[in-house]
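For the sake of transparency, this paper describes our internal protein records without simplification. An entry from our holdings is shown next, in its original layout:
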Amino acid sequence: MRLGDLRKFAIRKQTRIRFSLTNGMECVVSEQGVAQVPALTGIPNFNLEQELAGTQSFELDALSADPKAPIKTRRVRRDELAALTDGSPAVEVHDHDDD
């Protein structure tokens, strides 16, 4: 599972994905697919792909169209999120041989 997979999933499912970094900060992948570290105040001394590779726990914030509705947060393990990102293809391609 790579950062690009999380970005696609976040956009498709309109979900915010959060995970902790080893330095105590948190990475947030927004529902627009943008990965941010809100507490970052300068040039980072880490790589988000490498941080993601070591992350075992994630929080998924399901967003709704109603801004007044409460955000539903769900904690998932790495293997669960990997299954979700693999199991939700953006586009299904069907090969048809018309010859």
About this structure: Residues 3-86 form one domain.
